[in-house]
């Protein structure tokens, strides 16, 4: 079931991975380091945030800090998913955390967010049905971008294809007010923050989007009680 519901998102995942592979190569990383980054980082937003910092010779602490801030939303994802998988050994939970994606979280919570009792086997199989195909799609397409990126002219603007593909997948999933506010606030802050150095506007948009979503959800809960 998880694979069926996530299958349409695999196209966007593949395009995004392909673009990230190209970006790593264009930023000056060798094919070897690009491949290692794809295998061990597996976080497109953090990779694309850190690449210009690596290219500009920014301090290592700043590169790690930027990547951590961009991925801070996964702390919230982990806290929300913990009741469903806390019965698993910590090694399996760690592996699930590594392969968790934004789309997997949204699809899972949309289907099982109010489900009780938690910890059913169905939850795990549904989640694996999303994250495993996504991981393979990302890796295959990212390596394709690494090895074929040198043949694609920059004038093609392929990065916009990835953005449009992700929007086509994410927009239909925005069925709640917190998700909507998260998207609007993050988009506005990202647009306003374009002039900030070292792509800090992207970092600011992530923080603002997460805060907007959490605050909106809390306000909703207060009104309903």
Please give a handful of descriptors for the protein shown.
225 residues, mainly alpha
Architecture overview:
There is one protein chain. The protein is mainly alpha-helical and 225 residues long. It has 11 helices and no strands. The protein has helices at residues 2-26, 31-41, 44-55, 60-70, 73-85, 90-99, 102-112, 121-148, 158-170, 177-192, 200-224. The protein is globular.
Distance between the termini: 34 Å
**CA-atom Rg in angstroms:** 18 Å
Specify the structural class: mainly alpha
Strand count: 0
For the largest beta-sheet, the strand count, sense and barrel status come to:
none
What amount of the residues lies in strands? under 5%
Q: Low-confidence stretches at least 5 residues in length (pLDDT < 50)?
A: none
* Element-by-element helix/strand order: HHHHHHHHHHH
Helix content, binned percent? over 70%
**DSSP helix count?**
11
Shape: globular
What's the average pLDDT?
80
Outline the fold blueprint.
Elements: H1 2-26, H2 31-41, H3 44-55, H4 60-70, H5 73-85, H6 90-99, H7 102-112, H8 121-148, H9 158-170, H10 177-192, H11 200-224
């Amino acid at each position: 079931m998880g694979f069926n519901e996530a299958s349409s998102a695999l196209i966007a995942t593949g395009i995004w991975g392909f673009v990230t592979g190209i970006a790593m190569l264009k930023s000056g990383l060798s094919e070897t380091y690009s491949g290692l980054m794809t295998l061990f980082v597996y976080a497109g937003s953090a990779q694309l945030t850190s690449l210009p910092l690596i290219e500009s010779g920014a301090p290592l602490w700043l590169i790690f800090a930027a990547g951590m801030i961009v991925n801070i939303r996964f702390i919230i994802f982990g806290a929300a998913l913990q009741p469903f998988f806390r019965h698993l050994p910590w090694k399996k939970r760690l592996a699930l955390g590594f392969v968790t994606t934004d789309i997997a979280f949204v699809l899972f919570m949309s289907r099982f967010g109010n489900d009780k009792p938690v910890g059913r086997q169905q939850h795990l199989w549904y989640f694996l049905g999303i994250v495993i195909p996504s991981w393979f799609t990302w890796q295959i397409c990212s390596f394709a971008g690494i090895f074929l990126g040198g043949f694609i002219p920059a004038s093609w603007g392929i990065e916009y294809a990835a953005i449009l593909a992700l929007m086509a997948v994410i927009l239909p999933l925005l069925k709640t007010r917190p998700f909507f506010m998260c998207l609007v606030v993050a988009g506005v802050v990202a647009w306003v923050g374009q002039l900030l150095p070292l792509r800090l506007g992207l970092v600011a948009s992530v923080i603002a989007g997460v805060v907007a979503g959490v605050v909106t959800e809390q306000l909703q809960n207060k009104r309903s009680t």
